[in-house]
Amino acid sequence: MPFVLYVLALAVFAQGTSEFMLSGLMPDIARDMQVSIPVAGSLTSAFAVGMIVGAPLMALLSLRWSRRRALLAFLTTFLLVHVLGAVTTSFGVLLASRVVAALANAGFLAVALATAAGLVAPDAKGRATSVLLGGTTLACVAGVPAGAVLGQQWGWRAAFWAVALVSLPAVFAVLRSVPGGAAVSLAAGAGATPRARRELRALRGPRLLVTLLLCALVNGATFCTFTYLAPLVTQVTGFGAAGVPAALALFGMGSFAGVTAGGRLADARPRQLLLTGGVALLLGWVLFALTAGNAVATVVLVLVQGALSFAVGATLISQVLYAAAGAPTLGGGFATASLNVGAAIGPWCGGIPLAAGLGYRAPLWVSALLVALALVADGVAEAVRRAAARGRRLPATAG
């Protein structure tokens, strides 16, 4: 894999730390800002909404720039709004800073996905995607637990400062390592940046639309539980506050293993991986909901569900890039948007039963429901595709 992909993964590491770290910081933010935990959970949803809106819009904007210029602009904005979030005393300002950070993150990830896909062979998009998303999983392994520790020792604002500091070397690394001008577009087989109209036309295929829906549902299931993991392990499993960073690290270790394995299999056997992994993911959420009060079961299932969630999720993202081969930049933008539709609906759906007093196991059941919906949607789409294929063969047979 080209070295520049690892540079992009460094920036994704900082952004992934920011996106995921609120799970471990949410109780402290709620106390400091004097809001309820479900209201504090809206910070995660606000970030996701910003990613949803920002991904296609920022991808369109970036078509006017070189990819290096776009990456630098988005990453610098991301850094600065984290400084603002670290110093504000207003929940409204903090909420707004999360939206702006999400817009910058969305633009960066859309361009980074297009860059990654364009720098490798046409049949290696799965591996390139896994390298890039490896930054997110490493954020879960190291960045998020470190943010939780910083939050416990010096307050949640210290975690925001840490994200800003980690983003700084990524800015210089992108400046030095990412090609400027139209050079990166040449790898995608185009002499200039693709025009927005041509890319939009390439996004109409039914295969792409179904895959985007599956991305949203699977990621929704992941975020539904992950957002409320801290109160789950403390209030239901019975771990102390010190167990929260450990649980987050376990989830991150699983996600890193999952995205690595998924990257190796996604290019060769995506269908088998998605079906097997999807069924296992559903069964895992159900089992977790039934056994969340058991410490051993919680430890095992946090690890396993992290692995399955990211193996399936990374494979779906690579399938979006394959389906949107004619729209590399906007394809990455819509992939980013679909992931964050899930990241928005997940905490929101999980917060509904929490607000109704159904307890912290409830988000686990909601996660199971979302994965079940994804499996049903995939099954219906496959049945429709096969029926259409049989319909196309019948006239030839009759003739």
Describe the protein in words.
By secondary structure, the chain is mostly helical. The protein is 84% helix and 0% strand. Helix 1 (3-33) packs antiparallel against helix 4 and helix 14 crosses helix 15 (362-398). Residues 182-194 have low confidence and may be disordered.
Overall outline: globular
Beta percentage is under 5%
Order of helices and strands: HHHHHHHHHHHHHHH
The proportion of residues forming helix, as a percent range, comes to over 70%
Category from helices, strands and their pairing: mainly alpha
Largest sheet: none
Low-confidence stretches: 182-194
Question: Which value, in Å, is the CA radius of gyration?
Answer: 20 Å
Q: How many β-strand stretches?
A: 0
Enumerate how many helices there are, as a single number: 15
The chain-level mean pLDDT equals 81
Distance between the termini: 50 Å
Gist?
The protein is mostly helical and 399 residues long. Helices cover 84% and strands 0% of the residues.
Keywords:
399 residues, mainly alpha, globular
Layout: helices, strands, pairs:
Elements: H1 3-33, H2 37-62, H3 67-87, H4 91-118, H5 125-154, H6 156-177, H7 183-186, H8 196-201, H9 206-226, H10 229-237, H11 243-265, H12 270-291, H13 295-323, H14 328-355, H15 362-398
